[in-house]
Predict the structure.
Amino acid sequence: MKKLLFTVGFFVSFAAFLPAQVRSAHYEMIAPAGVPEGATAGSSADSAYSAEMELRFEAFNKVFCFNPALLVSPLRVRVFTARQEYDTYVTSKLGSTRPGAVYLHYNNPANRELVILQGSAEEKTVVPHQAFVQFLRAFIPGAPAWIREGFAVYFTTLAFNREKNVLDYEENLSWLETVKKSALSPEAVLQADTGGAPANFQAYAWSLVSFFLADTGGVYYRSLTDAFTVLAPGAGPQDNSRAVYSRLTLFTPAAALTRDYNAYIASKKTFTELIDEGQKAYGAKNYTSAAELFRKAAALKPGHYAPPYYLGLLAYEDKKYAEAENFYKTAMEYGAEKALVQYARGVNAAALGKKAEAAAFLEEASAADPARYKARADDLIKRLQ
């Protein structure tokens, strides 16, 4: 009897180390038991990743409108918490490992899976990219390369907020400077599967996707979504590429597409460009233009300190001191240099007649960076006395 009890106990203990396997509407999750990094208490790894993937599926399919009933099996996601185990598993499939995550595609849908290394430095950027590839190839294994790579880059900055259980999107402009350096006909990107992929293909594929999606409600967005309807699950990349190209150019000649695409790219500004132009406009006392540029920069990077800091300066110039203080506090929360912001807050408080508060801010600026602010801060504090 004792031996039997020991055996049963052994199997119970062993089961505790088995990965959890959970199915949701569109996914099969294989993940270690426990709370994933950044998840709320009471969550399990499988449920957290399941929630994330279902949100991603929904976001992807808002654009593609594939019929989920056509999935022959749930999309599998396998999560590892130990790098050695992840590397060993991926290497056994591909011959070498991949950073963060990788989608493994096979002709047999039952063998396909997205493999993730939880907590890796690359997870936040690689998972969105690979999750999209998994989604697309589940419906259209032989999708055109520009659709696969362009949308994968486009969705790379679709981040999952585990605390709020939502997806946050920040426009991905990492390839914009590369695209702007040399003109390229969209035709070369659209026909990469038949004519060969040009250099920096990912960059140009992303730019083309960005162009189509920016025309929400317009002819190009409609052309794009119509083109998805000609994608055939059983066709290869070349045939699907030809079909999509024919559909896209059915009502919009290639020359017009090229013209409008180049105009769109020329109008796009990176975060750095918007800040630089805003600073120039501010220096030229063109405050209206400066404010518009800084607001656009804030929309691109909502958590960056620079836009609220400069918007604070503009509010000060407009004598909206309470508004300026709020902008400065936001800039500080986003990681702005303490001395820079506290000096601006000191000047702003002085304009409001809050002498004690102004002196406190100025002293903090002086202490944080004496070389740059001590002389100026001391001088202003003397004038406030």
